[in-house]
Structure formats: C-alpha cells, structure tokens
Amino acid sequence: MHRRDFLFGGSTAVAALSLGGLSGCTTAPSQSHVFSKYSQVQPIGSPITPIHSSLDRVTRSVVGLRPFRKPGPRLEATTMGNKYLVHNYGHGGGGVSLSWGVAEISAGLIRQQGAPDVGVLGSGVIGLSTALELQRSGVNVTIYAKDFPPYTTSNIAGAMWHPVTLFEQDQVSPQTMSMLHLAAQIAFKRFITYANDMRYGVTWIRQHSLSNKPMDTSQAYIGSDALYPGLVRNQSSQNAMFGMPYYDAYYTLMIDPDIYLRALVSDFRSAGGTMVEQNFESPDDIAKLPQSSIVNCMGLGAGKVFNDESIIPARGQLSFLLPQSNIDYGYAMMHPNHGLLYSFPRKTGVLIGGSVGKGDWNTRVDESEVQRMVNGHAMLANLANT
Asked: Which of 19, 60, 64, 371 has the most crowded CB, counting CB atoms within 10 A?
C-alpha cells in the first residue's frame, strides 16, 4: 500500500482566518429539494436486506492512516520565507466529507493575494478539491505530490458523508468549531450536485447509528442537524435494527473514493491543471517552487514537517465484500461483544469496518481484524433474519 510521506518545514506563524466573506454559502438545501431531485432510497424504517458477510466474499482488505489532529483540522494562513502559505490539513475521518468546504475557505485565503499561479501540496481529496476550487476562479494550479490517486490515503477512506473523528473535545477551540460547521455546510451543498451521477460514484443511502443505551443528543451534528435529511435522534423501539434499542437515522451520501477521485483528477487535468511528482525533503524544496502562493494539503505528512506534534495517525482497516445491489443502508455501532462495527454500501462492493487506532502507524492488514469484522457483521445479518 502506498502512503503519503512528505517531509516539509517552515514557519508556524499564523494569520487570522476570516470567514466573513463566505457567509453566503451557509444555507443548507431544503429536504424537499434534495428528495424531489435525487431520492432513490427506501423510507427510513423500511425493512432491510441483510448483507452477506463471509470470508469467501471478501475481495480485498486495506489499511489507511487518517490524519487526526487533536485540536481539529488546521486551516490558516502564514508565510514561509517569500511564500504565502495556507495550511489545510489534519481532517481525521472527515476529509472527504469536509473537502469542498475547506477547499473553498482555503482558496478564498489564497485569492486575497491575487497570485495568478498557485502550488498545491498533496493530491488527496483535500488537495484535488482545493486545486479545482482555485481553477474555477481563473488561477493556474500545479499539484505537487509523491503519490497520486489511486495511491493516496483518500482512496482508502470509508467516505460516507458525515464528518467524524475530527478532534478531541477538550482541545478544540470555538473558532475551529465554527470553521467546521461552515465547511460542512458548504461541502454538503456541493456534494448533492454529484448525487446519483455514476461518473462521480456518489449515491444516497439511509444511515443508522445504533446503541444499546440512550444516545446523547445535547449537541447537533457537525454543520447542524439540517444537513442530515430525515434525521431522527435517540429513537427507542422494541424492534430496533439488530436488536439495538436506540438509534439515530438519517439520509446521507455515500462517496466511492476510487471512482470519485478519478473523476476529480480528470476534471483538474481537463481544466489545464498540471500534476508533478515530487518528493519534498526540506523547506528548501518548497522555497524552490516557482509559485509564490502555496496551499499545504499534505495530511498526515504535515505533522513532522511543520513541527505539529498534535497530529497523529488514526489507523483504519476496511474489508470489501462482493456487491449487493439490494443494499441501500449503512450502520455503525459499538457492539458489547464484537466491538466497533460499521458497514456502508457501494456499487463496487459492501464496505465493512470497525477500527480507529489512534497513534498506530502500522499499515499492514491484520488478518485477525478481518476475521473479527467478517464474523461481527455476519452475526448482525443473522439477527436481521430472525
């Protein structure tokens, strides 16, 4: 498996982040608009078809290292020598979900400089989205990266639209929370324009968060509950899914990164963008770039480069089962006997997962984890059949 391993350096001095110019992007689409245009899923609460989970149906297993930053993502402007530098990294498990939002905010900071040519560091979903956003405003963009899709961390994302694993609650600032809510609102509004377009691999699903005890509803979901059409929270039912008595449920978008990133690369190149393979070893390498304005979208690699000790890997392991065309739902839970389990449907296969190993740099597939997840999801499928 390929992993981004960039080594950069530079000043950590920061400039204040102003979001005032983006206020016009915060309106969430109405539920009626969403469903009149795109709905192809069953009503929440409709019967489910169990997934077929067994080792002989596993097509592949992968490991990805999410770039988790304890205070939350870093999105701010600074300078490094004669370069104007915008940091846009550390999105944890919410990189795909937040991508268009943080891209618009970071591109707005770059546009304030008026530079006609911009360099973007990193070719994952954050880098590609930021590059496309800059292109749309007439900027010439070059992406510099060691690895390109399909060899990026973003290709290994679960990528259901719901920003999660973003920060440690006791370390995140009110300013970062405001940025995350705004970024989620912008991103969701953009993503629904791709829904059910098979070129981008984005489809509607119904999602269930399950629990064996009452769920905390004191805080809204990132971006506000209005971004989760059909949302019901902390519902209680004797016939709840998989025997879990409490659940949240809502409609959301499932993004297949392998399809989606291919489309973004095609869009970027079609608009005249350039992609350069380059492995940066020191701040001097960045200083040699011809562009005076740079956006740092390196993800996990940015931690060592910019001396950000708060960013760590959040290891995730996924397996994929043969596809089932009749699965239109996803679920996630902490099962008392089988640990964390989640599953999402894609056209290319049914994704099963259940790991968030913070601080774990191991990129090898753990076969015992494959077995645990296959057995756990098979157990849930058996419950659904009873």
From this structure: 64
